[in-house]
Amino acid sequence: MGDIQSTLARSTGAVATATVASRATGFIRTLALAAVLGTAVVGDAYNGANSLPNMVYELLLGGVMSSVFVPALARARLRGRAHSRVFTQRLLLATIIGAAAATVTAVLCAPLLVAALVSDSDQSQLTTVLAYLLFPEIFFYALAATVTAILNVRDSYAPAAWAPVLNNLMVLATVGVFVLMPGPVTLTPSAMTTAQVLVLGIGTTAGIVGQAAWTVVALRRTGFRWSWRVRPVPYTWRPVRIGVGLLGWIVLYVAISQVGVAFVLRVAFDHGGVSTYTYADLLFQVPYGILGVSLLTVLTPRIARAVADNDRAALIADMGRAARYSVVALVPAGVAMTLLGPMLTTVMFIGRVDVDAARLIGTSLALSAFGLAPFALVMLQLRVFYAGNDMRTPALINVAMVATKITVVALGAATLPSQAVVVMLPVASSLSYLVGAVCGHWALRRRYGLLGFLAVLETFTRVLWASVVAGLFCVASVGLSHRFIDNPRGAAAITLLAATAFAVPAFLLAAKTIGVPEVRNARALLLG
User: Which of 90, 24, 5 is nearest to 348 (CA)?
Assistant: First the structure.
Protein backbone atom coordinates (compact mmCIF):
# COMPACT_ATOMS: atom_id res chain seq x y z
CA MET A 1 0.00 0.00 0.00
CA GLY A 2 2.87 2.36 0.80
CA ASP A 3 4.48 1.83 -2.62
CA ILE A 4 1.14 2.43 -4.36
CA GLN A 5 0.56 5.59 -2.33
CA SER A 6 4.08 6.83 -3.07
CA THR A 7 3.79 6.15 -6.80
CA LEU A 8 0.37 7.75 -6.94
CA ALA A 9 1.66 10.76 -5.02
CA ARG A 10 4.59 11.31 -7.39
CA SER A 11 2.50 10.90 -10.53
CA THR A 12 -0.46 12.92 -9.29
CA GLY A 13 1.78 15.65 -7.91
CA ALA A 14 3.54 16.06 -11.25
CA VAL A 15 0.24 16.18 -13.14
CA ALA A 16 -1.32 18.53 -10.58
CA THR A 17 1.61 20.95 -10.92
CA ALA A 18 1.19 20.99 -14.69
CA THR A 19 -2.58 21.32 -14.34
CA VAL A 20 -2.24 24.29 -11.98
CA ALA A 21 -0.01 26.00 -14.55
CA SER A 22 -2.51 25.13 -17.27
CA ARG A 23 -5.46 26.50 -15.30
CA ALA A 24 -3.55 29.63 -14.32
CA THR A 25 -2.61 30.45 -17.90
CA GLY A 26 -6.12 29.49 -19.00
CA PHE A 27 -7.48 31.89 -16.40
CA ILE A 28 -5.37 34.70 -17.82
CA ARG A 29 -6.39 33.70 -21.33
CA THR A 30 -10.07 33.95 -20.36
CA LEU A 31 -9.54 37.42 -18.93
CA ALA A 32 -7.70 38.55 -22.04
CA LEU A 33 -10.39 37.29 -24.40
CA ALA A 34 -13.13 38.86 -22.29
CA ALA A 35 -11.26 42.16 -22.23
CA VAL A 36 -10.81 42.22 -26.00
CA LEU A 37 -14.03 40.60 -27.26
CA GLY A 38 -16.47 41.28 -24.40
CA THR A 39 -19.57 39.21 -23.73
CA ALA A 40 -21.80 40.67 -26.45
CA VAL A 41 -22.26 39.70 -30.10
CA VAL A 42 -18.59 39.39 -31.12
CA GLY A 43 -17.66 37.49 -27.97
CA ASP A 44 -20.60 35.16 -28.47
CA ALA A 45 -19.63 34.57 -32.11
CA TYR A 46 -16.04 33.66 -31.17
CA ASN A 47 -16.95 31.46 -28.19
CA GLY A 48 -19.71 29.76 -30.16
CA ALA A 49 -17.44 29.10 -33.14
CA ASN A 50 -14.73 27.83 -30.82
CA SER A 51 -17.24 25.36 -29.33
CA LEU A 52 -18.08 23.86 -32.72
CA PRO A 53 -14.77 21.98 -33.26
CA ASN A 54 -15.24 20.37 -29.85
CA MET A 55 -18.78 19.36 -30.79
CA VAL A 56 -17.76 17.82 -34.11
CA TYR A 57 -14.67 16.15 -32.63
CA GLU A 58 -16.76 14.51 -29.91
CA LEU A 59 -19.45 13.50 -32.39
CA LEU A 60 -17.13 11.92 -34.95
CA LEU A 61 -14.06 10.82 -32.99
CA GLY A 62 -14.10 11.68 -29.30
CA GLY A 63 -16.47 8.95 -28.17
CA VAL A 64 -14.49 6.18 -29.85
CA MET A 65 -11.17 7.52 -28.61
CA SER A 66 -12.18 8.10 -25.00
CA SER A 67 -14.05 4.82 -24.66
CA VAL A 68 -11.85 2.40 -26.59
CA PHE A 69 -8.28 3.59 -26.90
CA VAL A 70 -6.96 3.67 -23.32
CA PRO A 71 -8.40 0.26 -22.32
CA ALA A 72 -7.25 -1.22 -25.66
CA LEU A 73 -3.73 0.17 -25.24
CA ALA A 74 -3.60 -1.13 -21.67
CA ARG A 75 -4.63 -4.63 -22.79
CA ALA A 76 -2.12 -4.56 -25.66
CA ARG A 77 0.62 -3.63 -23.21
CA LEU A 78 -0.24 -6.65 -21.08
CA ARG A 79 0.40 -8.90 -24.12
CA GLY A 80 4.03 -7.84 -24.42
CA ARG A 81 6.22 -5.05 -25.72
CA ALA A 82 6.34 -6.22 -29.36
CA HIS A 83 2.55 -6.54 -29.67
CA SER A 84 2.04 -3.20 -27.91
CA ARG A 85 4.44 -1.42 -30.28
CA VAL A 86 2.76 -2.71 -33.46
CA PHE A 87 -0.72 -2.06 -32.08
CA THR A 88 0.23 1.51 -31.16
CA GLN A 89 1.71 2.19 -34.61
CA ARG A 90 -1.50 1.06 -36.28
CA LEU A 91 -3.61 3.04 -33.85
CA LEU A 92 -1.73 6.25 -34.65
CA LEU A 93 -2.10 5.77 -38.38
CA ALA A 94 -5.81 4.97 -38.00
CA THR A 95 -6.21 8.17 -35.96
CA ILE A 96 -4.54 10.29 -38.61
CA ILE A 97 -6.70 8.86 -41.40
CA GLY A 98 -9.94 9.15 -39.43
CA ALA A 99 -9.16 12.62 -38.07
CA ALA A 100 -8.28 13.95 -41.52
CA ALA A 101 -11.56 12.67 -42.97
CA ALA A 102 -13.57 14.09 -40.06
CA THR A 103 -11.87 17.48 -40.35
CA VAL A 104 -12.52 17.82 -44.08
CA THR A 105 -16.17 16.83 -43.58
CA ALA A 106 -16.60 19.36 -40.78
CA VAL A 107 -15.07 22.23 -42.76
CA LEU A 108 -17.40 21.53 -45.68
CA CYS A 109 -20.41 21.47 -43.35
CA ALA A 110 -19.47 24.58 -41.34
CA PRO A 111 -22.19 26.86 -42.82
CA LEU A 112 -24.90 24.30 -42.09
CA LEU A 113 -23.80 23.87 -38.47
CA VAL A 114 -23.68 27.62 -37.87
CA ALA A 115 -27.05 28.17 -39.53
CA ALA A 116 -28.62 25.67 -37.15
CA LEU A 117 -27.39 27.62 -34.11
CA VAL A 118 -27.25 31.32 -35.00
CA SER A 119 -30.20 33.34 -36.28
CA ASP A 120 -28.74 36.88 -36.47
CA SER A 121 -27.32 37.42 -39.99
CA ASP A 122 -24.23 39.50 -39.11
CA GLN A 123 -23.35 37.25 -36.17
CA SER A 124 -23.95 34.18 -38.32
CA GLN A 125 -21.57 35.45 -41.02
CA LEU A 126 -18.78 36.13 -38.51
CA THR A 127 -19.34 32.79 -36.76
CA THR A 128 -19.16 30.96 -40.11
CA VAL A 129 -15.84 32.58 -41.06
CA LEU A 130 -14.40 31.76 -37.65
CA ALA A 131 -15.70 28.20 -37.92
CA TYR A 132 -13.81 27.74 -41.20
CA LEU A 133 -10.63 28.90 -39.46
CA LEU A 134 -11.18 26.89 -36.27
CA PHE A 135 -12.42 23.53 -37.62
CA PRO A 136 -8.88 22.33 -38.50
CA GLU A 137 -8.47 22.05 -34.73
CA ILE A 138 -10.39 18.76 -34.94
CA PHE A 139 -7.44 16.96 -36.54
CA PHE A 140 -5.00 18.19 -33.91
CA TYR A 141 -7.40 17.51 -31.02
CA ALA A 142 -7.57 13.88 -32.18
CA LEU A 143 -3.81 13.62 -32.58
CA ALA A 144 -3.12 15.12 -29.15
CA ALA A 145 -5.74 12.88 -27.48
CA THR A 146 -4.30 9.72 -29.01
CA VAL A 147 -0.70 10.56 -28.18
CA THR A 148 -1.72 11.53 -24.64
CA ALA A 149 -3.44 8.15 -24.19
CA ILE A 150 -0.27 6.39 -25.37
CA LEU A 151 1.87 8.42 -22.96
CA ASN A 152 -0.44 7.69 -20.04
CA VAL A 153 -0.49 3.95 -20.71
CA ARG A 154 3.32 4.11 -20.81
CA ASP A 155 3.15 5.73 -17.32
CA SER A 156 4.18 9.16 -18.61
CA TYR A 157 1.70 11.74 -17.36
CA ALA A 158 3.27 15.15 -16.78
CA PRO A 159 4.54 15.98 -20.32
CA ALA A 160 1.07 15.82 -21.88
CA ALA A 161 -0.38 17.72 -18.91
CA TRP A 162 1.90 20.66 -19.76
CA ALA A 163 0.68 20.81 -23.38
CA PRO A 164 -2.37 23.06 -22.68
CA VAL A 165 -0.01 25.67 -21.20
CA LEU A 166 1.58 26.12 -24.63
CA ASN A 167 -1.88 26.43 -26.16
CA ASN A 168 -2.87 29.12 -23.65
CA LEU A 169 0.34 31.08 -24.21
CA MET A 170 -0.13 31.02 -27.98
CA VAL A 171 -3.70 32.29 -27.66
CA LEU A 172 -2.48 35.05 -25.32
CA ALA A 173 0.06 36.04 -27.97
CA THR A 174 -2.77 36.05 -30.52
CA VAL A 175 -4.80 38.40 -28.31
CA GLY A 176 -1.76 40.67 -28.04
CA VAL A 177 -1.40 40.83 -31.83
CA PHE A 178 -5.15 41.42 -32.17
CA VAL A 179 -5.00 44.41 -29.79
CA LEU A 180 -2.11 46.00 -31.71
CA MET A 181 -3.87 45.74 -35.05
CA PRO A 182 -5.79 48.71 -36.50
CA GLY A 183 -9.55 48.30 -36.33
CA PRO A 184 -12.82 49.75 -35.02
CA VAL A 185 -13.02 51.15 -31.50
CA THR A 186 -16.26 49.28 -30.85
CA LEU A 187 -16.22 45.70 -32.07
CA THR A 188 -19.23 44.53 -34.05
CA PRO A 189 -19.45 41.63 -36.52
CA SER A 190 -19.80 43.96 -39.50
CA ALA A 191 -17.07 46.39 -38.37
CA MET A 192 -14.29 43.85 -37.75
CA THR A 193 -11.57 43.87 -40.40
CA THR A 194 -10.61 40.78 -42.35
CA ALA A 195 -7.13 40.88 -40.79
CA GLN A 196 -8.62 40.89 -37.28
CA VAL A 197 -10.79 37.87 -38.02
CA LEU A 198 -7.88 35.99 -39.60
CA VAL A 199 -5.54 36.67 -36.67
CA LEU A 200 -8.18 35.59 -34.16
CA GLY A 201 -9.08 32.37 -35.99
CA ILE A 202 -5.62 31.29 -37.16
CA GLY A 203 -4.00 32.16 -33.82
CA THR A 204 -6.53 30.11 -31.87
CA THR A 205 -6.04 27.11 -34.17
CA ALA A 206 -2.26 27.51 -33.90
CA GLY A 207 -2.60 27.02 -30.14
CA ILE A 208 -4.14 23.57 -30.65
CA VAL A 209 -1.46 22.75 -33.25
CA GLY A 210 1.20 23.65 -30.69
CA GLN A 211 -0.49 21.53 -28.05
CA ALA A 212 -0.51 18.50 -30.36
CA ALA A 213 3.11 19.08 -31.39
CA TRP A 214 4.15 19.19 -27.72
CA THR A 215 2.63 15.77 -27.04
CA VAL A 216 4.30 14.29 -30.15
CA VAL A 217 7.70 15.57 -29.01
CA ALA A 218 7.04 14.15 -25.53
CA LEU A 219 6.25 10.76 -27.05
CA ARG A 220 9.47 10.78 -29.07
CA ARG A 221 11.43 11.50 -25.91
CA THR A 222 10.17 8.23 -24.43
CA GLY A 223 11.98 6.42 -27.26
CA PHE A 224 8.88 5.74 -29.33
CA ARG A 225 9.25 6.16 -33.11
CA TRP A 226 6.42 6.23 -35.62
CA SER A 227 6.62 3.76 -38.47
CA TRP A 228 4.89 5.06 -41.57
CA ARG A 229 5.48 1.68 -43.21
CA VAL A 230 2.45 0.29 -41.41
CA ARG A 231 -0.01 -0.70 -44.12
CA PRO A 232 -3.18 1.41 -43.94
CA VAL A 233 -5.77 -1.17 -45.04
CA PRO A 234 -6.89 -3.43 -43.51
CA TYR A 235 -4.26 -3.52 -40.79
CA THR A 236 -4.85 -0.10 -39.25
CA TRP A 237 -8.48 -1.10 -38.78
CA ARG A 238 -7.47 -3.75 -36.26
CA PRO A 239 -6.98 -1.29 -33.36
CA VAL A 240 -10.43 0.15 -34.00
CA ARG A 241 -12.12 -3.14 -34.94
CA ILE A 242 -12.32 -4.13 -31.29
CA GLY A 243 -14.98 -1.46 -30.85
CA VAL A 244 -17.01 -2.12 -33.99
CA GLY A 245 -19.45 -4.39 -32.19
CA LEU A 246 -20.11 -1.61 -29.71
CA LEU A 247 -20.01 1.22 -32.22
CA GLY A 248 -23.77 1.74 -32.14
CA TRP A 249 -23.71 2.53 -28.42
CA ILE A 250 -20.72 4.85 -28.86
CA VAL A 251 -22.48 6.72 -31.66
CA LEU A 252 -25.62 6.99 -29.52
CA TYR A 253 -23.61 8.36 -26.59
CA VAL A 254 -21.82 11.08 -28.53
CA ALA A 255 -24.84 11.94 -30.69
CA ILE A 256 -27.04 12.42 -27.62
CA SER A 257 -24.30 14.52 -25.99
CA GLN A 258 -24.02 16.81 -28.97
CA VAL A 259 -27.79 17.18 -29.22
CA GLY A 260 -27.63 18.56 -25.69
CA VAL A 261 -24.69 20.84 -26.50
CA ALA A 262 -26.39 22.13 -29.66
CA PHE A 263 -29.65 22.78 -27.81
CA VAL A 264 -27.85 24.73 -25.07
CA LEU A 265 -25.82 26.73 -27.60
CA ARG A 266 -28.93 27.62 -29.59
CA VAL A 267 -30.70 28.89 -26.47
CA ALA A 268 -27.53 30.74 -25.43
CA PHE A 269 -27.27 32.45 -28.83
CA ASP A 270 -30.97 33.39 -28.74
CA HIS A 271 -30.55 35.04 -25.32
CA GLY A 272 -27.10 36.59 -25.89
CA GLY A 273 -25.51 34.33 -23.29
CA VAL A 274 -22.87 32.25 -25.09
CA SER A 275 -19.94 34.12 -23.55
CA THR A 276 -21.53 34.19 -20.08
CA TYR A 277 -22.14 30.44 -20.25
CA THR A 278 -18.67 29.75 -21.65
CA TYR A 279 -16.82 31.76 -19.01
CA ALA A 280 -18.91 30.34 -16.15
CA ASP A 281 -18.25 26.82 -17.42
CA LEU A 282 -14.50 27.50 -17.69
CA LEU A 283 -14.40 28.67 -14.08
CA PHE A 284 -16.53 25.69 -13.02
CA GLN A 285 -13.92 23.36 -14.52
CA VAL A 286 -10.94 24.88 -12.67
CA PRO A 287 -11.27 23.09 -9.28
CA TYR A 288 -12.02 19.77 -10.96
CA GLY A 289 -9.13 20.21 -13.35
CA ILE A 290 -6.50 20.77 -10.67
CA LEU A 291 -7.08 17.58 -8.64
CA GLY A 292 -9.84 15.62 -10.37
CA VAL A 293 -8.18 15.48 -13.77
CA SER A 294 -4.81 14.78 -12.17
CA LEU A 295 -6.14 11.80 -10.23
CA LEU A 296 -8.11 10.34 -13.13
CA THR A 297 -5.17 10.77 -15.51
CA VAL A 298 -3.06 8.61 -13.22
CA LEU A 299 -5.77 6.16 -12.18
CA THR A 300 -7.39 5.46 -15.57
CA PRO A 301 -4.63 3.09 -16.80
CA ARG A 302 -4.63 1.42 -13.36
CA ILE A 303 -8.40 0.94 -13.53
CA ALA A 304 -8.09 -0.46 -17.08
CA ARG A 305 -5.44 -2.94 -15.94
CA ALA A 306 -7.49 -3.95 -12.89
CA VAL A 307 -10.51 -4.67 -15.07
CA ALA A 308 -8.37 -6.55 -17.63
CA ASP A 309 -6.89 -8.68 -14.81
CA ASN A 310 -10.35 -9.16 -13.24
CA ASP A 311 -8.92 -7.73 -10.00
CA ARG A 312 -12.04 -6.47 -8.26
CA ALA A 313 -10.23 -5.52 -5.06
CA ALA A 314 -7.79 -3.24 -6.89
CA LEU A 315 -10.62 -1.70 -8.91
CA ILE A 316 -12.72 -0.92 -5.82
CA ALA A 317 -9.67 0.50 -4.03
CA ASP A 318 -8.78 2.85 -6.90
CA MET A 319 -12.40 3.93 -7.38
CA GLY A 320 -12.77 4.69 -3.69
CA ARG A 321 -9.48 6.55 -3.56
CA ALA A 322 -10.40 8.74 -6.55
CA ALA A 323 -13.91 9.43 -5.22
CA ARG A 324 -12.73 10.40 -1.72
CA TYR A 325 -9.99 12.72 -2.91
CA SER A 326 -12.36 14.31 -5.43
CA VAL A 327 -14.87 14.97 -2.66
CA VAL A 328 -12.20 16.48 -0.41
CA ALA A 329 -11.12 18.87 -3.15
CA LEU A 330 -14.44 19.74 -4.74
CA VAL A 331 -16.91 20.07 -1.86
CA PRO A 332 -15.09 23.02 -0.23
CA ALA A 333 -14.44 24.48 -3.68
CA GLY A 334 -18.16 24.20 -4.48
CA VAL A 335 -19.15 25.90 -1.22
CA ALA A 336 -16.63 28.70 -1.85
CA MET A 337 -17.87 29.21 -5.40
CA THR A 338 -21.49 29.29 -4.21
CA LEU A 339 -20.76 31.99 -1.65
CA LEU A 340 -18.10 33.96 -3.50
CA GLY A 341 -18.84 33.39 -7.21
CA PRO A 342 -20.10 36.94 -7.93
CA MET A 343 -17.21 38.40 -5.93
CA LEU A 344 -14.68 36.40 -7.93
CA THR A 345 -16.07 37.39 -11.32
CA THR A 346 -16.43 41.03 -10.24
CA VAL A 347 -12.71 41.16 -9.52
CA MET A 348 -11.89 39.23 -12.69
CA PHE A 349 -14.12 40.87 -15.25
CA ILE A 350 -15.02 44.43 -14.19
CA GLY A 351 -12.99 46.73 -16.39
CA ARG A 352 -13.19 44.14 -19.14
CA VAL A 353 -16.99 43.85 -19.24
CA ASP A 354 -19.66 45.89 -17.47
CA VAL A 355 -20.63 45.26 -13.85
CA ASP A 356 -23.90 43.50 -14.65
CA ALA A 357 -22.25 41.10 -17.12
CA ALA A 358 -19.50 40.26 -14.60
CA ARG A 359 -22.02 39.55 -11.86
CA LEU A 360 -24.15 37.46 -14.20
CA ILE A 361 -21.16 35.19 -14.87
CA GLY A 362 -20.59 34.92 -11.12
CA THR A 363 -24.23 34.17 -10.40
CA SER A 364 -24.21 31.42 -13.04
CA LEU A 365 -21.09 29.98 -11.43
CA ALA A 366 -22.47 30.17 -7.89
CA LEU A 367 -25.79 28.49 -8.67
CA SER A 368 -24.17 25.65 -10.64
CA ALA A 369 -21.32 24.92 -8.20
CA PHE A 370 -23.26 22.10 -6.52
CA GLY A 371 -22.51 19.98 -9.61
CA LEU A 372 -18.73 19.84 -9.05
CA ALA A 373 -18.58 16.64 -7.00
CA PRO A 374 -21.25 14.81 -9.09
CA PHE A 375 -19.35 15.80 -12.24
CA ALA A 376 -16.15 14.23 -10.90
CA LEU A 377 -18.02 11.05 -9.97
CA VAL A 378 -19.54 10.80 -13.46
CA MET A 379 -16.10 11.12 -15.05
CA LEU A 380 -14.77 8.38 -12.76
CA GLN A 381 -17.71 6.07 -13.43
CA LEU A 382 -17.37 6.46 -17.20
CA ARG A 383 -13.76 5.31 -17.06
CA VAL A 384 -14.76 2.18 -15.17
CA PHE A 385 -17.45 1.30 -17.70
CA TYR A 386 -15.10 1.95 -20.62
CA ALA A 387 -12.36 -0.15 -19.06
CA GLY A 388 -14.76 -3.10 -19.17
CA ASN A 389 -15.71 -2.39 -22.81
CA ASP A 390 -19.22 -1.48 -21.67
CA MET A 391 -20.52 1.27 -23.95
CA ARG A 392 -24.19 0.47 -23.46
CA THR A 393 -24.50 1.62 -19.85
CA PRO A 394 -22.82 5.03 -20.36
CA ALA A 395 -25.00 5.63 -23.42
CA LEU A 396 -28.19 4.94 -21.47
CA ILE A 397 -27.03 7.06 -18.54
CA ASN A 398 -26.19 9.85 -20.95
CA VAL A 399 -29.71 9.73 -22.36
CA ALA A 400 -31.02 10.45 -18.84
CA MET A 401 -28.46 13.23 -18.32
CA VAL A 402 -29.14 15.01 -21.60
CA ALA A 403 -32.90 14.63 -21.17
CA THR A 404 -32.56 16.31 -17.77
CA LYS A 405 -30.49 19.16 -19.23
CA ILE A 406 -32.81 19.79 -22.19
CA THR A 407 -35.92 19.65 -20.01
CA VAL A 408 -34.56 22.17 -17.51
CA VAL A 409 -33.31 24.52 -20.24
CA ALA A 410 -36.56 24.28 -22.21
CA LEU A 411 -38.67 25.01 -19.13
CA GLY A 412 -36.43 27.93 -18.25
CA ALA A 413 -36.54 29.35 -21.77
CA ALA A 414 -40.33 29.17 -21.77
CA THR A 415 -40.95 30.74 -18.37
CA LEU A 416 -37.98 32.89 -17.29
CA PRO A 417 -36.66 36.29 -18.36
CA SER A 418 -33.62 36.38 -20.63
CA GLN A 419 -30.92 36.81 -17.95
CA ALA A 420 -32.40 34.04 -15.82
CA VAL A 421 -32.36 31.73 -18.84
CA VAL A 422 -28.62 32.35 -19.26
CA VAL A 423 -28.08 31.49 -15.58
CA MET A 424 -30.12 28.31 -15.99
CA LEU A 425 -27.77 26.91 -18.65
CA PRO A 426 -24.92 25.88 -16.28
CA VAL A 427 -27.46 24.97 -13.58
CA ALA A 428 -29.08 22.51 -15.99
CA SER A 429 -25.68 20.95 -16.66
CA SER A 430 -25.06 20.48 -12.93
CA LEU A 431 -28.45 18.87 -12.46
CA SER A 432 -27.62 16.46 -15.28
CA TYR A 433 -24.34 15.53 -13.53
CA LEU A 434 -26.26 14.75 -10.36
CA VAL A 435 -28.62 12.46 -12.29
CA GLY A 436 -25.66 10.80 -14.02
CA ALA A 437 -23.78 10.17 -10.76
CA VAL A 438 -26.80 8.49 -9.16
CA CYS A 439 -27.49 6.31 -12.21
CA GLY A 440 -23.80 5.40 -12.60
CA HIS A 441 -23.46 4.37 -8.97
CA TRP A 442 -26.55 2.18 -9.19
CA ALA A 443 -25.25 0.47 -12.36
CA LEU A 444 -21.76 -0.14 -10.93
CA ARG A 445 -23.13 -1.52 -7.69
CA ARG A 446 -25.27 -4.01 -9.62
CA ARG A 447 -22.16 -5.15 -11.48
CA TYR A 448 -19.47 -5.19 -8.80
CA GLY A 449 -21.45 -5.40 -5.57
CA LEU A 450 -20.67 -3.09 -2.66
CA LEU A 451 -18.34 -0.29 -3.80
CA GLY A 452 -17.24 0.95 -0.39
CA PHE A 453 -19.29 4.09 -0.98
CA LEU A 454 -20.11 4.45 2.71
CA ALA A 455 -16.52 5.59 3.21
CA VAL A 456 -16.97 8.16 0.44
CA LEU A 457 -20.27 9.33 1.99
CA GLU A 458 -18.61 9.63 5.39
CA THR A 459 -15.80 11.70 3.90
CA PHE A 460 -18.37 13.86 2.09
CA THR A 461 -20.29 14.52 5.32
CA ARG A 462 -17.20 15.48 7.29
CA VAL A 463 -15.81 17.69 4.52
CA LEU A 464 -19.20 19.39 4.14
CA TRP A 465 -19.26 20.28 7.85
CA ALA A 466 -15.73 21.65 7.64
CA SER A 467 -16.74 23.63 4.55
CA VAL A 468 -19.77 25.08 6.36
CA VAL A 469 -17.47 26.32 9.13
CA ALA A 470 -15.22 27.96 6.56
CA GLY A 471 -18.28 29.29 4.73
CA LEU A 472 -19.30 31.32 7.78
CA PHE A 473 -16.13 33.36 7.37
CA CYS A 474 -16.94 33.84 3.67
CA VAL A 475 -20.43 35.15 4.53
CA ALA A 476 -19.00 37.49 7.16
CA SER A 477 -16.42 38.78 4.66
CA VAL A 478 -19.11 39.50 2.07
CA GLY A 479 -21.33 41.36 4.56
CA LEU A 480 -18.60 43.49 6.11
CA SER A 481 -16.87 44.47 2.88
CA HIS A 482 -20.12 45.59 1.24
CA ARG A 483 -21.09 47.55 4.33
CA PHE A 484 -17.92 49.60 4.52
CA ILE A 485 -16.70 49.75 0.89
CA ASP A 486 -18.80 51.38 -1.84
CA ASN A 487 -16.65 50.47 -4.86
CA PRO A 488 -17.92 47.10 -6.22
CA ARG A 489 -14.54 45.84 -7.38
CA GLY A 490 -12.79 47.00 -4.21
CA ALA A 491 -15.39 45.35 -2.01
CA ALA A 492 -15.10 42.12 -3.99
CA ALA A 493 -11.31 42.13 -3.78
CA ILE A 494 -11.33 42.69 -0.01
CA THR A 495 -13.91 39.92 0.34
CA LEU A 496 -11.74 37.43 -1.52
CA LEU A 497 -8.63 38.38 0.45
CA ALA A 498 -10.44 38.10 3.79
CA ALA A 499 -12.05 34.82 2.81
CA THR A 500 -8.69 33.37 1.78
CA ALA A 501 -6.99 34.59 4.96
CA PHE A 502 -9.63 33.26 7.36
CA ALA A 503 -11.73 30.61 5.62
CA VAL A 504 -8.86 28.40 4.41
CA PRO A 505 -7.25 28.01 7.86
CA ALA A 506 -10.72 27.55 9.35
CA PHE A 507 -11.43 24.72 6.91
CA LEU A 508 -8.11 22.98 7.61
CA LEU A 509 -8.59 23.30 11.38
CA ALA A 510 -12.18 22.06 11.19
CA ALA A 511 -11.17 19.14 8.96
CA LYS A 512 -8.46 18.17 11.43
CA THR A 513 -10.85 18.47 14.38
CA ILE A 514 -13.67 16.55 12.69
CA GLY A 515 -11.25 13.98 11.31
CA VAL A 516 -10.71 14.03 7.56
CA PRO A 517 -7.45 12.14 6.91
CA GLU A 518 -7.81 12.60 3.16
CA VAL A 519 -7.04 16.31 3.58
CA ARG A 520 -3.55 15.49 4.81
CA ASN A 521 -3.09 12.78 2.21
CA ALA A 522 -4.39 15.04 -0.58
CA ARG A 523 -1.72 17.57 0.30
CA ALA A 524 0.86 14.81 0.07
CA LEU A 525 -0.51 13.84 -3.35
CA LEU A 526 -0.29 17.38 -4.63
CA LEU A 527 3.20 17.97 -3.29
CA GLY A 528 4.34 14.55 -4.56
Answer: 24
